[in-house]
Amino acid sequence: MAEFFWTDDLCTGSPLIDEDHRRLIAYVNALFEAMETAGPSDAMREAMSDLVQYTREHFGREEAEMERVRYVASLAHKSEHTNLMRQIVALKEMLESGGKINVPAVEAFLSEWLREHIVRSDSKLAAALERGARAV
Questions:
Q1: How many CA atoms within 13 Å lie on the side-chain side of 73?
Q2: Could you give the 3-state DSSP secondary structure of residue 1?
Q3: For the whole model, what pTM was predicted?
Q4: Which end of the chain has fewer CB atoms at under 10 Å, N or C?
Q5: 31-87 confidence digits (pLDDT tens)
Q6: Any residues with CB less than 8 A from the CB of 40 and at least 6 apart, and which?
Q7: Whole-number Å distance between alpha carbons of 114 and 55
Q8: Which residues of 48-70 are buried (b: 16+ CB within 10 A; e: fewer)?
Q9: Domains (ranges, CATH) in the chain?
């Protein structure tokens, strides 16, 4: 089974964002575990639904913080969020309709996307939030 581990390079320095990311990784790992079954299952659909819901909540919190500090890269960052949401909602819909998925490809995509987004985009957001907090 694939598993996504929290590593020090994923720490953004923002307790709010880092805690959200730890929880997001737990949801990703729950999906990975559920995908180890043969074919679509209730457990897989439930894990996917939970991941979609939590991802929406997490992105909402990040985007509210972007607005609060008037983050200059918010449009690009929100675009990344929108693109991922489209992809995971499509995957959820495929599972709900009984479609088969390429498990290794989904595991690789989610792991790579999340790691890259945290390291490249969320770390910059966390720095902007810290600057914004000091300016208040």
A1: 14
A2: coil
A3: 0.90
A4: C
A5: 999 988 766 688 899 999 999 999 999 999 999 999 999 999 999 999 999 999 999
A6: 95, 98, 99, 100, 101
A7: 11
A8: beebbebbeebbeebbebbeebe
A9: 10-135 (1.20.120.50)
